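Title: [Solved] Peptidase inhibitor family I36 protein 3D structure

Original question kept below for reference.
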Amino acid sequence: MGILKKSLTTIAATGVLLGGVFATPAAAADPNTCPSGKVCGWSKTNRKGTRTVLSVTPGCDIFTGALSVSNQTSYRIEFWHITPGTGCGVGTRLVTLQPHTYSDNTRSTVTGIEVWAR
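Solution (posted by the thread starter after getting help):
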């Protein structure tokens, strides 16, 4: 095998190996999706705008303002518009999502969530 052919073979093999190292699954790079096991909210409807990603456990939590949401956990989650300092269950319940579902329009800004254990 000539030197030129060996060099081209080495370059091709290196390219294949490096290509695998740097490859990122399309879903992981898509800002309009929510990672498995997480709760996400977007600043605009239809999962557009700035995305917030949270890890959650059962209970109540403040949620950064969102107009579309995704529940990719195993929990049932209620999304609320609450007045700061009032806690869960006080205000307007906007949408309840079962595990692995989403809502592209919550009708109002989500400011709190209630996570229910199974």
